[in-house]
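Case study: Sugar ABC transporter permease.
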Amino acid sequence: MNTAAKKRKPSMGKVFVYLFLTLASALSLFPFYWMFVMATQTSSAYNSIPPTITPGNLLVENFQKVLLQIDFFGALWTSFLLCTIVTLVVLFISSLAGFAFAKFHFPAKNFLFITILLTMIIPPQLGLIPQYFLIAKAGLLDTLSGVMILFFLNPLGIFLMRQYVSDSVPDELIEAAKLDGCSNFKIYRSIVLPIILPAFATLGIIVFTAVWGEFLWQFTILRDPENYTIQVALASLSNTFNVDFGMILSGVFWATVPLIIIFLLFNRLFISSIAEGSVK
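Here is what the predicted structure looks like once written out:
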């Protein structure tokens, strides 16, 4: 009895870990809570001392102001369409490139892979001007195509897929498929893709959230309010002389809700994919 009771008691190490994780979770969630609080208050509450930490009753009223200023749902749909297309293309290109770098031998393979990785250390602001001129020369200014084309080649995605394919796809399985007469693309489609589903879910979350939150390039390319993404549309709410923080943060709050829902859906897919992969 005493031995069993002792085994059921959590150790001090586990208690410390749980307390630390609880504190870290609270600190991570506090900015979202504060954003919600400010979305329910007047603009004056933004600079109040002591700061306001309890919700008000102006959430609907502030959001109605947003709807009067911008096409909120149109911009939300544009962002969702942009992020979905970019995510699908990045997953396809990155998985193909990762498969090639992991399982094929060709001249300058390591040099090309290192070159791709080195592009990750270049600040995106440095390429803003030449990229803008290239998009302008191609006639893609103020179009979603001009915005999304910049995100298609993702060095982080290629690196993640290359590492995952190297560790998870046996060389013997690929050789057996080649002996059976499978082409390289059929091997990728029938063998590699089912194995790398967990990496797909992980990279999909990273890419979707990154493109959703990106502002500088979208703001540079898009001019027509009808083509605005949600980030650019929310930025247009700011006024130099009179900034309504309650209205702006109300728009930011409702623009964050779909992203959280999508993140949770992808997270469930990620967990289920790991379970399926372990069974296989």
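For the exam, be able to explain this: The mean pLDDT is 84.
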